[in-house]
Amino acid sequence: MGLELRKDSIDLGVVIKDSERSLAFYRDVIGLEHVADTPMPAPLSGTMHRLMCGTTLIKLVKLDAVPAAEPAPGGLGGGTGYRYFTISVSNLADVTQACRDAGVRIIMDNVELRPGFMVSMVEDPDGNWVEFIDPGA
C-alpha cells in the first residue's frame, strides 16, 4: 500500500517566538501569501498564521506559552532532525537581495552548486534555515 495523497505538497509547521517578526520575514520579505490567522485551542493555545508557498501551506505557530526549549542552532551542521526547507524560485538573486536589504542573515549567497543550479540559504527570525534554489532551465 502507499500513501493516497489528497494534495501534491506537504504542510509545514514552524513554531515561532514573535508573530510580527516572522510575518515580516515570510510574508513581507520573501512574499508568501498570508491567507488566514487561526486561533488554536487549549492545551496548545495560540495562533496559527497560515501562508501559502505554491500549494504548500506554511503554518507559523505562535503559542501563548512559548516553549523554553529551542532546536540546536547551526542549520545543517547543528544537529539532526528537520534543519531547513527549500523553495524553488526563478528570481534567486532578487529574493536573496530582498533578504539582505531586510537585514536577514545570509548563510549561503547565490552559489552555483553545479552548472546552472543556483542556491542561497537564509536564516529566519527564529534561527530556522530556508533554502532558495533556482535549478535553471
What can you tell me about this protein's structure?
This protein has one domain (11-65, 82-134): 2,3-Dihydroxybiphenyl 1,2-Dioxygenase, domain 1. 15% of the residues lie in helices and 42% in strands. The protein has 2 helices and 8 strands. The protein has helices spanning 19-29, 92-101, and strands at residues 11-16, 33-40, 46-53, 56-63, 84-88, 105-114, 117-123, 129-134. The strands form 2 sheets. A 4-stranded mixed beta sheet has the order 1-4-3-2, with helices on one face. Strands 5-8-7-6 form a 4-stranded mixed beta sheet, with helices on one face. Strand 6 (105-114) and strand 7 (117-123) form a beta hairpin. The longest helix has 11 residues, at 19-29.
Provide a concise account of the structure shown.
This protein is 15% helix and 42% strand. The protein is α/β, with parallel strands linked by helices.
Please describe the structure with a list of short key phrases separated by commas or semicolons.
137 residues; alpha/beta; four-stranded mixed beta sheet
The major pleated sheet works out as: 4 strands, mixed
Portion in helices: 10-25%
Overall 3D form: globular
Q: Helix tally?
A: 2
What is the succession of H and E elements?
EHEEEEHEEE
Radius of gyration, taken over Cα atoms and rounded to an integer in Å: 16 Å
SS strand fraction:
35-45%
The CATH architecture assignment turns out to be Roll
Give the low-pLDDT segments: none
